[in-house]
Amino acid sequence: MVEPSAIVDPGAVLGAGTRVWHFSHVCAGARVGAACSLGQNVFIGNEVRIGDRVKIQNNVSVYDAVTIEDEVFCGPSMVFTNVHNPRAALVRKDQYRHTLVRRGATIGANATIVCGVTLGRHAFIGAGAVVLRDVPDFALMAGVPARQIGWISRFGERLALPLAGHAEAACPHTGDLYALRGGVCALLRAGGTAPHPL
Fold first, then answer.
1. What's the predicted TM-score (pTM) here?
2. Which residue of 33, 100, 103, 186 lies most exposed, with the fewest beta carbons within 10 A?
């Protein structure tokens, strides 16, 4: 579904069931997966790849050199960049830095993702945070600049894990079991019973 005020340039690819809302613009080279929602006043650049079941809220611009995997949430007015040191008088399109948002990550409202970073699977970026470096899988980030304040489950519940060391904790909602080993958090068992591949 494309709302009549939205613009989808010829050549853009939208997957089945994707919705494009008022005043949004999807450029010709963009590839957007199935069952996505692009809110009001969203811009999707030419060199952008978006997976399935992604929700991009109002007033978000996804510029060239950004890749978003499946089931990512981009909160209202969050910001992507693609040039590290922009100047109006200088053309630096050959200096774009690639940004990768891995599956299941959440980016809160008004957060800024400085180009050239990877946000890990199911990471959670708090509202208003400014991310300057790579974010691990399942990391909970907040602040300016963003720093890790904890770990978070696939369901979005904070995990009772230290920032470093070796420990295990279950998601209080689903019972999924997570293990922290050497600063890396991974899903050990889904629902506390069966192994689950990441």
1. 0.94
2. 186
